[in-house]
């Protein structure tokens, strides 16, 4: 019996490539903040799932994007970048204000290590960027 491969629609491609992958990257980044083996193993598992998703999308039959979908994807990426800039600016202002006013937050038993902060923040930024791109793309496609 011959297996019939289904063709991924443009919307499904965006869902898998941007929204789901963005969520995976964000959760991975959040897990890197915690200094324990379980969080590290979960982060590795989510990274492997993300790699598997990229491999699946690379081999899957995909519907060709039309000019409107390409334009919406570019617009969505621009909106995601602008939103991410605003979020980072707000975080920078809060960080500067807390530094000037000597405000410190104590998280109790949760420990953060500075050496783990850079990869964690990088994963989170990439995840938010991908997720917002997919979100805005879906919003733009719904308007057309």
Give a quick set of tags describing it.
mainly alpha; flat; 144 residues; 4 helices; 76% helix
What is the N-to-C order of secondary-structure elements (H for helix, E for strand)?
Answer: HHHH
What would you call the shape? flat
**Overall radius of gyration:** 19 Å
Q: Output the structural class.
A: mainly alpha
Low-confidence stretches: none
Give the overall pLDDT as a whole number.
84
Q: Compute the number of strand runs.
A: 0
**N- to C-terminal distance:** 40 Å
Biggest sheet statistics? none
Helix percent reads: over 70%
In what range is the share of β-strand residues? Answer: under 5%
Per DSSP, the total helix count is 4
Task: Give a quick precis of the structure.
With 144 residues, the protein is mainly α. It has four helices and no strands.
Explain what you see.
There is one protein chain. With 144 residues, the protein is mostly helical. The chain contains four helices and no strands. The longest helix is centred in the middle third of the chain and has 34 residues, at 67-100. The chain is flat.
